[in-house]
Write a structure and sequence with these properties.
Layout: H1 2-7, H2 9-17, E1 53-54, E2 74-89, E3 92-99, E4 108-111, E5 115-122, E6 133-134, E7 154-160, E8 165-170, H3 176-181, E9 185-191, E10 201-210, E11 220-221, H4 226-230, E12 236-239, E13 252-255, E14 259-268, E15 273-278, E16 282-286, E17 294-297, E18 299-302, E19 306-313, E20 318-324, H5 327-332, E21 336-342, H6 357-360, H7 368-378, H8 384-398, H9 400-403, H10 421-425, H11 428-437, E22 439-445, E23 448-454, H12 462-473, H13 485-494
This protein binds copper (II) ion (CU).
């Protein structure tokens, strides 16, 4: 690609002669403008001026402040690689490899024409060597070969940011896929010389796919699974490094009337994101992080190792849900975030109720009890109350869509679980089998005949099934009882899988 770009030089240079360059370089400076494409020109704007500047780096979802400088500078970026154990989901930890201590890596912001002096440090506690390949670099490997850094070492290289745009950076030490799968990516914005139009808020959201030995939400510290990664069979697909990064109290926030610029990256390593905000239309999208924009966009494709940014105005309050619109990723692998917008209603734009609790399932309630129960079980001190509390959260995310929060079901469609005589007659084993393999055919519950299908729920972890059923048995006037993980595990092991059941 880079070769190709240079091969076209003479041709584009000739075309550029006919048009004035958008921001002329200082007198006498050599520069290369290709073509006036509304601020997209590539160019060396001359040598850095003034004292070197230390780049402000931010953790997602924060973005460094806009650059107001009118001249190129020497910008120093100090980025530290750390291998850290952090939650990827409630009660589930993962050993992330990070640029700056979190996933995604810290956001870097420079101006086109800046000379970037890059310092990469690898923390002494790291187990692995790491490096950095910035897609904003013009030069072999994007900096990778010059930045190979062993634990407890630091490296330095310098590049000139010739092209404006929003770029991914990532580690490129072999096995590259594994370093990226462990969270080694972030974004660097190269602002055009004239800057970007002013907006009220900027935010940083980056998607990534993760591969763990345990299944989705299986508790404890989960190791990386190389085979799943090779098979592109993601266990988690998340925004900003964990399932909970942008939900509940961590939701993104804005106010009615504000304009938002959302920088969206995708670290991959494997999956392409169909990025969508439920209830919003992107007024503008700069696809692939390039110079030109598209307008009135619903869902924008963000490639693995690519980026885009979206700009939109918020007209009405409420909770806007960020998803990868490959929906099983959103609802079964974690690719779900929230933008909470406060302010006055505008009934002429939208009238209705806001968050749909069933649609969002357990994402709206506090998942903390699930983690508490997992910890207690590990310590061998799990109580009935803890199981019930965890089961309630999980029930709301899975069963309540049909059986409702109050266990009353929906007349004619979904049988009640509250004071259900059918449930009361089931043995604990039958109950577990029904969850694993689903239930179909005619059944009579509290005098009403149902002849429908309950889909298998075997994607749930053993621990989650135990907690949900314990909650159901102890709620709404049911007879009580307790179901353990060991019971579920044993029954799963000897129960033949129903057609269509996962895992
Ligand atoms: Cu690495």
């Amino acid at each position: 690609m880079r070769m190709h770009r240079y091969a076209m030089f003479p041709l584009l240079l000739a075309a550029a002669c006919a048009q004035p360059a958008p921001t002329p370089p200082p007198e006498g400076e050599k520069s290369v403008f290709l073509e006036d494409t509304g601020g997209s020109a590539k160019g060396d704007l001359g040598p850095p001026q003034g004292e070197p500047i230390q780049a402000v780096l931010t953790h997602a979802p924060e973005v460094p402040p806009p650059i107001t400088r009118k001249t190129p500078a020497k910008v120093i970026v100090d980025l530290e690689v750390k291998e850290v154990e952090l939650p990827i989901a409630e009660g589930v930890n993962y050993m992330f490899w990070t640029f700056g201590g979190k996933v995604p890596g810290q956001f870097i912001r420079v101006r086109q024409g800046d000379t970037v002096e890059f310092h990469l440090k690898n923390h002494p506690d790291s187990k692995m060597p790491h490096n950095i390949d910035l897609h904003a670099v013009t030069g072999p490997g994007g900096g990778a070969a010059s930045s190979f850094t062993a634990p407890g070492h630091k490296s330095q290289f310098t590049f000139k940011a010739l092209n404006r745009g929003l770029y991914v950076y990532h580690c490129a030490v072999a096995p590259v896929g594994m370093h990226v799968a462990n969270g080694m990516y972030g974004l660097i914005l190269v602002e055009p010389p004239e800057g970007l139009p002013k907006v009220d808020r900027e935010m940083y959201v980056m998607q990534g796919d993760f591969y763990t030995v345990g299944k989705y939400r299986e508790k404890g510290l989960q190791p990386f699974d190389m085979q799943k990664a090779i098979d592109e069979n993601a266990t988690y697909v998340v925004f900003n490094g964990s399932e909970g990064a942008l939900v509940g109290d961590n939701a993104l926030k804005a106010k009615v009337g504000e304009t938002v610029r959302m920088y969206i990256g995708n670290g991959g390593p494997n999956l392409i994101s169909s990025f969508h905000v439920i209830g919003e239309i992107f007024d503008k999208v700069y696809p692939e992080g390039g110079s030109r924009f598209q307008e009135n966009v619903q869902t924008t494709l963000v490639p693995a190792g690519g980026a885009a940014w979206a700009e939109f105005k918020l007209e009405v309050p409420g909770t806007y849900v960020l998803v990868d619109h490959s929906l099983f990723r959103a609802f079964n692998k974690g690719a779900l975030g929230m933008l909470k917008v406060d302010g006055p209603e505008d009934k002429t734009v939208y009238t209705g109720k806001e968050v749909d609790e069933i649609y969002l399932g357990d994402k709206v309630s506090d998942p903390a009890p699930v983690g508490v129960a997992a910890k207690s079980r590990k310590a061998g001190e799990l109580t009935l109350e803890e199981q019930v509390a965890a089961g309630k959260v999980l029930y709301q995310g899975t069963c309540s869509a049909c059986h409702r929060d109050n266990g009353e079901g929906v007349p004619g469609a979904f049988p009640p679980l509250a004071k259900a005589d059918y449930l009361a007659k089931m043995s604990q084993e039958q109950l577990i089998v029904a969850i694993l393999n689903g239930l179909e055919g005619e059944i009579t519950v509290n005098g009403t005949v149902y002849n429908s299908v309950m889909p298998p729920q075997s994607h749930l972890a053993d621990e989650d099934i135990a907690n949900i059923l314990t909650y159901v048995l102890n709620s709404w006037g049911n007879a009580g009882g307790q179901i353990s993980v060991e019971q579920v595990k044993a029954i799963r092991a000897k129960t033949p899988r129903a057609v269509g059941a996962g895992h």
